[in-house]
Amino acid sequence: MGDTDRGGPVGYWDPLPTARRLLAEEPGLDNFGGVPLLAGYFVAVPEPLVGEGLPRTQRLTTASDCLIDRLPEDGCWFDTAEQARAACAPLQVPGGARLYALLVPAGHVAGLVADVRAAATYEPVLLGRLDGGAGGGDAEVAAPAVVAEGGDGIGWEVLGYDHGLLHSWLCNDLYRDAVRELGVETGERGLLPGPDAAERVAAWANARDDTKPVTWVPALLMEWDVPIESRFVPVVGGPERPDQPPSQPWYHWLVRGGRRASDRSG
Asked: What DSSP line would sit under 194-244, residue for residue?
């Protein structure tokens, strides 16, 4: 099927057929209460993660700002893929930076939205995309936007919102206990392999009293494995100006002025 046959702009598709394809490929999704809803896009740089009680990976990928860097800065969410790429274009972008999208199953949206609203932080993208589905409404209404073509689902994670940031179950020291008590495993990106594992970790974390006071939700990450284009041009040196006097301390002109004044008075 060509791009124009999808009923949207060339290079895009309706997220609902995409979500239904995910439902078909991963039957556990329908146990969450419906279609995964697009929360927003972000640009991040996967990083090595090595630490006691954490999965060992050379390319940790997460929507949490606690563990990897985002561009152009932490906490940045974008409504479209174009906005995300355009915001990074003037920057010196690391080669490993990629575009990502976060999708939250409809049955878990209400808890996440409630925490975002309780934090009273400015989140126009997250609330703009998810708040329509917070009441468990029709996904056709809650997720009307398009999803950029070319992205692949790379795994699931468990997230919670507190004080303006998404936090991961990994940064709350839950990994070791979850592996021991639930038997879950993470892949080479530090992500859970499917919705069932993410759902079990979220429910288990919500039943604990030793984590951040958030509603833990399962979420799917999509990645566009294409380097982020940059228009950044480094400035190397400058034109030589042999007549330029050497730099002087800030008080240099005060001293010169005082001497001139004394010369005139004497």
From this structure: SHHHHHHHHHHHHT-SSS-SS--EEEEEEEE-SPPP------------TTS
Tell me the C-alpha distance between 57 and 209, whole Å: 28
Record the pTM.
0.76
Amino acid letter, residue 266: G
pLDDT in tens, 83-114: 999 999 999 999 999 999 999 999 999 999 99
Structure-block tokens of residue 204: 């288990």
Angle between helices 195-206 and 175-182 (to 10 degrees): 110
Residue 256 within a domain: no
Q: Is residue 236 part of a domain?
A: no
Taking only the tens place, the pLDDT of each residue in 49-91 is 988 889 999 999 999 988 999 999 988 999 999 999 999 999 9
Range of the domain at 189: 3-224
Cα separation, 106 vs 116, in Å, equals 16
**Sign of the torsion angle spanned by Cα atoms 137, 138, 143, 147:** positive
Residue bearing the bigger pLDDT, 79 or 265: 79
Is residue 218 included in any domain, yes or no? Answer: yes
Any domain includes 249: no
Number of domains the chain contains: 1
